[in-house]
Description:
binds magnesium ion, 246 residues, globular, single chain, binds adenosine-5'-diphosphate, Aminoglycoside 3'-phosphotransferase, Chain: A, domain 2, 2 domains, alpha+beta
Amino acid sequence: MDTEHPLTGGNATDTVVRIGTTVRKPWTPKTPLVHAFVQHVRGGGVDAPAVLGRDEQGRQILEFVPGSEPEVLSSEDLHRVGRIVRGIHDAAATFPFRTTDASDVLLPAPEAPELICHGDLTPWNLVVGDRWVFIDWDGAGPSTRLWDLAYSASAFTLNEPAQEPEEAAARLTAFVAGYGAEGRMRALLPAAMAQRTQAMLRMLQRAHGRGEEPWASMYVEGHGAHWRAVSEYVRAHEAVWRDALR
Length: 246
Ligand SMILES: Nc1ncnc2c1ncn2[C@@H]1O[C@H](COP(=O)(O)OP(=O)(O)O)[C@@H](O)[C@H]1O
Ligand SMILES: [Mg+2]
């Protein structure tokens, strides 16, 4: 008998389990697109969980990647993660897509999407072990490098509003250097991070107002307060981020 072990690290899915060296996750109408996308970026040299098909219960079968969520990341670690994000964008850029793909995304996509992005390249979707691998590709959809990087960089470096802005700015600089962002992107990033964290708060507020789960509960269980604090922090210190990235 293959034993099912619940995997509880995620927010949005309470039905993720491990069986042996595989993960099983619900199959959605978007899954074929997501799997094609993951196979494409893997073919481009990105380390992502292998997609292994569909089980007898209709669930996704994915490779289980051993490791754990990162705890404290040094500047070198953040540089490394920034470089991984860049590798994902570069590999994704050659994946053909339509702007109507994956229209069930929670957050409004940028107006002129350039490529399919993971959308949630955050510490809570990074497995750190012998390999450093982003998991949870189900939210992938049309976006822009800037919008995806804004969320990733703020989640990895500006997610603790108690942190001194100068320290956070140094972490942000390491991450963005790892990405290899050029001048234009560096100039646009501070405002994009403020917009992206604000969008997260608005999404949770809207879901709460409409009773859409699991976000409605997440909103009252601390995520609302967290994203309010983070979006205020990112907005309040925009000039610090801008100076650090110049
Ligand atoms: N391929 C994988 N390898 C290792 N652990 C995984 C994998 N996929 C999911 N997990 C574990 O299960 C948790 C929930 O899965 P995830 O795909 O992130 O779902 P959610 O959409 O709920 O965030 C993750 O935080 C992680 O701990
Ligand atoms: Mg997750």
